[in-house]
């Protein structure tokens, strides 16, 4: 599988996982548990390409947890769906490159996290500011679940 085909396949799975995340977000306990499991798994991954993204992935997880706990709601729902979708992807051991393959097994996971980070970078920066005590912008309206069919658009 060439690099471009892998990227397209990973993004297709990520979109599917984001659709699953819509259902998951309606069950805060399940969503919170998923995020906790993704955090635990990421702590065990000791591969260079993943290590570079781990800190940001952990902040993404904290953002989604704060949203679920209703501590931080100043973020569009699509951002939370993207985070949950990436967590589902990371937890899936049989994705584009199965995690059991030494060294390269987490390359697709790293790609997905990197892609989501690019998509939500402004929301993640606002969350970091909020964590540090600065005021973040507030999004008045909640997104309609039906309008979120295609969360990802290839840049």
Question: Which descriptors apply to this entry?
Answer:
single chain, 155 residues, mainly alpha, 5 helices, 65% helix, globular, disordered C terminus
Structure in words:
- The longest helix has 25 residues, at 107-131.
- The chain has helices at residues 3-25, 28-44, 48-68, 77-91, 107-131.
- Helix 1 (3-25) packs across helix 5 (107-131), helix 2 crosses helix 4 (77-91) and helix 4 (77-91) packs antiparallel against helix 5.
- It is built from five helices and no strands.
- The chain starts with a helix and ends in a 24-residue tail after the last helix.
- The protein has one domain (11-148).
- With 155 residues, the protein is mainly α.
- Helix content is 65%, strand content 0%.
């Amino acid at each position: 599988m060439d690099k471009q085909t892998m990227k397209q396949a990973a993004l297709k799975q990520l979109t599917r996982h984001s659709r699953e995340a819509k259902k998951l977000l309606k069950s805060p306990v399940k969503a919170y548990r998923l995020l906790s499991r993704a955090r635990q798994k990421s702590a065990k991954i000791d591969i260079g390409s993943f290590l570079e993204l781990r800190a940001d992935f952990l902040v993404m997880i904290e953002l989604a947890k704060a949203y679920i706990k209703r501590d931080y709601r100043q973020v569009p729902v699509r951002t939370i769906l993207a985070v949950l979708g990436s967590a589902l992807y990371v937890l899936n051991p049989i994705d584009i490159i199965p995690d059991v393959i030494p060294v390269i097994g987490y390359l697709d996971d790293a790609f997905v996290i990197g892609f989501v980070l690019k998509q939500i970078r402004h929301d993640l920066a606002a969350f970091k500011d909020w964590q540090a005590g600065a005021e973040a912008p507030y999004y008045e309206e909640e997104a309609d679940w039906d309008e979120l069919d295609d969360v990802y658009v290839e840049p």
